[in-house]
Structures are given as structure tokens and as C-alpha cells.
Amino acid sequence: MTLEAGSSLKTGSGTGTSSIGSLFKALNSGTTTSRQIVESCLNAIDQRDGSIGAFLHIDRERALQAAEASDLRRSTGEVRGPLDGLPISIKDAICEAGQPATCASRILEGYVSPYSATVIDRLHAAGAIPLGRVNLDEFAMGSSSENSAYQLTHNPWDLTRTPGGSSSGSAASVAARMVPGSLGSDTGGSIRQPASLCGIVGLKPTYGRVSRYGLVAFASSLEQIGPFSLDVFGAAALLQTIAGHDPHDSTCVNTPAEDYLQTLDTPLADLRIGVPKEYFGEGLDPEVQNIVEEALAVYSQHGAKLIPVELPHSKYSVATYYIIAPSEASSNLARFDGIHYGYRSPNFTDLESLYAASRGEGFGPEVKRRIMLGTYALSAGYADKYYVKALQIRRLIRHDFDAAFQQCDVIAGPVTPTPAFRLGELTDDPLAMYLSDIYTIAANLAGIPAISIPAGWTASGLPVGLQLQGPVFTESRLLRAARMLEIDRPWIDRLPPAAGG
Amino acid sequence: MKYDVIIGLEVHAQLQTKTKIFCGCATDFTPDAPNIRTCPVCLGLPGALPVLNRRAFEMAVKAALGLRCQIAHFTKWDRKQYFYPDLPKGYQISQYDLPFSHSGLMEIPADPEVAGAEGLTRKVRIIRAHLEDDAGKNIHDESGRGSESQVDLNRAGTPLVEIVTEPDLRSPKEARMLLEEIRLLLLYFGVSDCNMQEGNLRCDANINLHLHHDSGITTKTPIVEIKNLNSFRFLEQACEYEVSRQLKTYGHLEEIADRTKRTFGYDPQRGVTIEQRSKEEAADYRYFPDPDLVPVIVTADQIQLWQADLPERPQDRRQRYQTELGLSPYDAGVIIEQGRAFADFFEQIVAHGAESKQASNWITQEIQRILNERKCSIGEFPVSAELVGTILRKVSDKQLTLKAAREALDALVSYSEENTVSQETLEKVIQERGLSIVQNDELLLNIIQQVIQKNPKPVADYLGGKQAAAGSLLGQVMREARGADPQLVKSLVTQALDALKSGNS
Ligand SMILES: [Zn+2]
Prior knowledge:
Oligomer: heterodimer
CATH superfamily of chain A: Amidase signature (AS) domain
Number of helices of chain A: 16
Order of helices and strands of chain A: HHEHEHEHEHEEHHEHEHHHHEHHEEH
Helix content of chain B: 25-40%
Bound molecules: zinc ion
Structural class of chain B: alpha+beta
CATH topology of chain A: Amidase signature (AS) enzymes
Radius of gyration of chain A: 21 Å
Distance between the termini of chain A: 26 Å
Number of domains of chain B: 3
CATH class of chain A: Alpha Beta
Strand content of chain A: 5-15%
Strand content of chain B: 15-25%
Number of domains of chain A: 1
Structural class of chain A: alpha/beta
Distance between the termini of chain B: 98 Å
Number of strands of chain B: 17
């Protein structure tokens, strides 16, 4: 095993940008500058984003200025860390002062945030360069980008297919080598599923590890902001930059952020990998199953033990999630009322019709569906049957994980039941769409960290991810385990067709 | 027909924290422009999150302990959801099933007009006190020309404590007295300014009647909630009107089919209660735990610390003034009603030697008169409680008459306009104006003459040249004329003896 970060990576601009690890090395060795990196990203966006559709808004001038400032710092030896000078795309649900934050919704068309999310402040403090705002399913509700009010995002590996969602633009912008990293959010798999379908690394942190302040809320008790990157190094660097206590978020845990990069290249000895039988049952695409099992075999070769574990309540995950998430969403989205900011319909005669028309015209069908679901689940007479019951099952799902982690260090399995599906394939079947989150939702319900890493490609060239889940606050373990696979079976040289592969 | 009036109150009081309950914005919302005390959190901007202001929680606990409530060891926050322009988040952060406090008790004298209640104490149980954030204000165009309504969110996010009582009140007067007592408590505890004009203290009254028909049947009228009463008078008037309205509507009915609770408002101009739009009659607030906030855990030790730190309740003070200081209930009440600073001033006057009844008369009459003249509060009174106490001690020591004491106080007050007033100033004022009893009076001279007549021996000695013989005469005069100025006594005795001397020669 070779343990050097990004050891076999190209940094040339012809194929777009490269991984955070290799760019960090190239910057340090003086073979490139931040300005060159940002320019190559902007060129790649110009060339490719017309067919990918990841970006909703790009701030070129600001990015170039920030790159020059970073190069100046580097020349005077004041580098702020591994992300200094590197452009990062931002899911359009994470607020930055002076930037739009549409959440891919008509209701926030033209809205400009007057304040920045804590993670954005931390990116700036680390010298990273927020380059542009990327597409998502409206208010992070969806798994395909098809719920965006503005545009479709296409999978760089096959433009007819979905990049996944809801952080569609984050995954596609990184996979297509238009940026080396991105920030997205994961409420039920919205980082891991698109990372898996796009063949890159995506990590959902432990609930409370990263501040949610400035992330437009969909389901507050479930979601976390997390990184996308071509390499594990980049995911670690991004996570340690954005993690840590924030006085603006009461649910953000008051423990200091770790230095994930320090331990990254130390393989985990005697790793016990739990393999739940529930993740390998009906509905799992055989090709996906093979690729995941081959990845597990790699770990076995490096001395890991594969241990069968049980997650008996995982079959209730989707149902539980689709009560809790819409309940919270129905409340979180009440503030979009046409009164204070955002879209106001001209079609009203009184206060009530102002609300009805603004929300009716401003929200898309999936958002409305979930608001209706959640409003119903919280209604007097129904709350006990639905919302309260869902909370009880959520506790059981947590206990499943507690019990399983008595026997193993991480739990491994597929991220999604199938590789990327075709755009349009599931739009008429919301339930089938919901099932694409079947393996990812439980981690959000339990609040545990989980990572998706490229495990292989199908015969038709679609990427398939491996999911590793760990007990709370074991991000460092997940990153080290991911790095073991990356070293053994490096994936970064495999370029998607949209990036010249 | 006999009937009972049944009233319970829901009292809303704004806590006087420096900053709002879930953000860092200042709470002084008397600023000159709308929406300037706001931030992403209290504007409800996308992505903003609330963080509990611990001071607000502690103040609310203080209020609840004052109401003799139990403090919960575990309390959480719930969203109360409804749409209204002054509510930017689309929900209010409140407490639903696990309020931070419950099971308190307040006592007021029962209304003697209520049959059988004369001389009794009305015990009013407090169901709960919980904490929530206030909404903003809608500003409507009153011109009728149809311009746009506006929203001012300066007030949005101000901490509010809501106090809910059992329906233990038996008359509109008792309702008023309870609200007055709650107001005093919150004022004395320094947790709310209770400014009712500003809406910082407001109240809803739930009221109905139990009608005892001559047939022996008792019927209960439907409960009416009268919303948003922002003065004591309106509370009492609205309840009185509602009693008469319910009597008129239901008094003749031995059976009332529809007992649905209804919501009314009060129109003080017309003095009537008016049913409010009952469209959202069964408002479903869809309460659920706010996932953005963590529950608050309070330990028994912490509660004990807070309890130990509690100021004296106005009710307890009123009682103490009667039992320990011998004031009448009326006088004690008058002082307590004027507020904590006023009562503190009174107690300091007593502590500096004033007789308590005298102190009570003075603070409610002399001092109050000066405060009214000068249009200032007790905190701005120019003469310290210590000096007032000294003046009154001189009265009880018979060094000053009451009239002279009043003159001394007035002199000190006017003197204070250009100078600081001290103990020396007081002595100087008494001296200069000749306010001392002994100077005013023949008393001292009479005593001296008597002493001289009764003591021929020392007098003869003195006249014979023994200066020291005057000492025993001086001592006797001082003993007789208790509190007289020794310097003065000495010079008067010497004068009297010298007069004898010259008369002899
Ligand atoms: Zn604020």
C-alpha cells in the first residue's frame, strides 16, 4: 500500500480540475497557483456545465480576486491550511451574505441572503473560495434534481441519467471536474446517494458535528452539512474545516473538531466490519451487490473481519422518515409566506388569499406534497398515530445501531439499490423515488456518520458507491477506512465522459 | 336565582431582559424606526436558528418561584404553528406539555361582595407558567384609503412569560386584584416593567357562570375567553359586562345545549364584549417539539440556589409591615403599591431611627407630596432615607416638632437643588432656622430656674467664685431637658447664674 495523498493524480487543466489532495500538493510545490486552479475550474464550467447543469450562479470576479489573495498569502508563507486557494461549489440552500439562496425554489427567486452560514465563514477563514451556487431538488426534497424549479442536472457519467439528489449540483460539479470539492446537505441521503451515483466521496457527519446555522432548514432533526470531494483527503480537509461547536446552533455539539488529516493515512488494524443482511435483500441490483461485495473483499484482504449484524427495524426507516421529515418541513417552510421576503403572488384579495396564492405558486409539487403530509401527520387527532409513533420507531432504529456497534466498528453496505436511473424514469412514482434512499435514511434517523466512496463501475460504466456507517463521532474512523479502499483501488483517474474520460 | 361567577386568567408579561429570548437583539423596542432591533433569527430568515438566552430563562424561573410554582427538572420547547404577518417564522416558540413550571399559588383578600367570602383569603391556584417568544406588531393603515399594512418586528422575539390560573376567582373585582398582585410581584422581582400601555403586561380572562335555579338545578354557561385586556379597569369592566351578558342570555335556561368555548374581545369605548371572528374556531396549532432547540435540564441544587436568591414577595412584605412594624393593612398596602424602591425607602427611614407609623405617614404624605410637586420618582428623591430617618428620630426624641421637621425636610429639598445634602446640612438647617424645640420654647429656661432654686448650695458656691460648681447644675438641667443641645444649655445656665451675680452685687 502506498500512503501518499493523491499520488497518481494528474493536475493538468485539460481535463478540468483535480482532487483536493493533488491540488494541495501542486500548490505547495509551486507547480500551480490558486489563480490557475480557479481559471481551470471556470474553463471547465464554461465547457461542460451547459450539458451538466450543475451551477445556478457563479461569482467569477470574486473567485478570481480570492484566488489572487490566496496566492499572495502563499508567497508570504501565510497559508491557512489545505483548502487555501481551492474553489468549492455550494449547494444553493447554504446561505452566504450577498449571494442568492434559492433552494432551487421559485418562492426564493431573487432572494439574496444578508448573512452567511457558519460553514461559509469557516471556508473563508480557511482560505477556500466559494465559487458558485449549485442546483438541488427544491428545498432538498428529492433524489434526482428533477424537483429543481430551475433546471435538471445531468450525471457526468451518462447525461441521460440523474446525478442523484438532493445535492445534485454538488455531486455533478465535482464528478465532472468543474470544482475539486463541494458542500451539500444530507437529510435522508442527499450527500451519499448523489456521491455514489456520481462516483465521488460524500460524507454525512454525525448530527451535531457541523453547524446548521445558515442551512435553509428542511428537516432540522435529521440534516447535516457535509463535504463532496474526488478524494478522501479532500473530504477530510473539508470536514475538519467546517466542523466544530457553533454558538449559533444549539444542536451543534460542544466538542472540538478533530484533525482528520493527521490520522487519515494510518490504516485501521483489525477492523470489524458489520454486514447487515437487511442491506442485501430484495430490491438490490445484482451488479451493485457484486461491486459492494468485491469492495468488502478488499477489506478482508487487508485483515478486516466481516461480521453479520442485524438491523431489524431498518425496514421501517423509509416510513418513519416520511413522517418525521415532512412534519418538520411543514413547519420549517411556514416562513415562506409571501409577507416578509421571497415570492409574493399578485393574485390576492385578502391576507388568506395572499398566503394561499404565494405558497401555491411558489412551491413545486413535491414540496407541496410533503407540506401536506407533514401538516396531516401533526394534526390534532393524528399526531399520536403518526408523528409520535414515528418518534418511537426512530428510537428503535437507533437502538438497532447501538446493538450492532457492540459487535463491529463500522457497518458496510450499498448506498443505493441501483446505479443512476434515467431522468424521467421515476418522476411519476414518488414512492419508488423514496425507496432510492432506503439504505441511507437510517443514518439520519440515528444521527450517526456515514460515508459513500466509489467502489466500482457497472458494465455500462456507471459508478457504484460503498457506504460505511459508524457510531456517533467516528468520522475519523470512517475516513481512514475509506482511505484504505482508495489506496487499494484508486478511482480518481477514471474520468467520466463529460470530463473527457 | 343565585349564581357563581367563575373566572380564570391567562397573564402575559414581557421579561425585561437586555436581549431577546432566542437572539442577541436588544429589547428596547421604543426605537424611533420599525424593524431596527432585528437580525436573521428574529426576522425568521431562511437558515437562521434560535439559541436560548439563559437570562430570560432565569428571569422566568424567578417569576415562577415568586408564584410559588414547582420548577420542572426537564423542560422543552414546542412550536405553536399559525400564519399571521407579525409572526415571521410561521410559528411561535412556546412550551406545550412540559412547561418549565407548574402548580403555584397566589393569595388575595376575597371580594367581600361575594356571598360568604367576607374576611376570607382567596387562594388562586396557578396551573403553570411557561416561556415563549412574542410576535411583532402589524401596523394597519387607519385612514381607510386602503394603503398597505406594514409589519414591525422590533418586538418579535421578546421573552414572554405566560401565567395560567385555575378558574378560582369569584368576581370581576377579584380578577382585577389578582392581576394587580401579579403585577406587583413581577415588579418587585425586577422581571418585568409591566407597562400595560405598551402591552408589556396583558391578560385574557376565561369567564362563565354557574346558575343555581330555584328548581334546584345548576347550569353552567359556556366559557367565554375575553382576549387582550391591557388595563386593570378594562379587565374588571369586561368581566362585569360579561357576567351581565351571560345572565341575560342564559339566566332563564335550565339547560344549555351548546357549551362550546367562545372567544370575545372587549370594546372599552362602548363597554361591551364582542364575539371575535369564529372562523378558525377549532384552531389546530399542531404543536410539536422544536428540533432547533435542546431541552433545558435544571438540577435540584440550581433550584435551591435560585430560591435562596429570591427577593421578598410584596405580599410577604405587606404582611410584615403589619405584624412587625404595626402598620394598618391600609397603610401597608399603600406603601407596597408604590413599588419596591418606595417600600425600600420606607424601610430605610425606619432603619435609621424613625418610628414606623411616623415613617409611614411621612412617606405617603410629605415625601409623596414632594415627589408629586417635583414630578419625580422615589429613586430621584434628593434627600436620603438616612436623613429623613434622622429628622423623624429628632421628632420622636422631642428635639423637633412635626411642623419643624416638615420645614427641615422642605429646606433640605430646596437646598439640594444646588448642593449635596448631608447630616451637617441638616444640623445647619435646624440651627440657622432655629427649629430645635429648646430654642423655640420657654421649657429650657424654666428648667434652669427650677434647678437654680432647688440647689442653693452649688449656686452659692458658684457665686462665691467656684466656677466648677456650675458642673453639677449643668448635669441636672441636661437630665431634665432630655435631648437639649449641651452647648446651648451651658451658655444659658452661665447666663442665668451671671444674672444672679450682677443682681447680688
Ligand atoms: Zn434578533
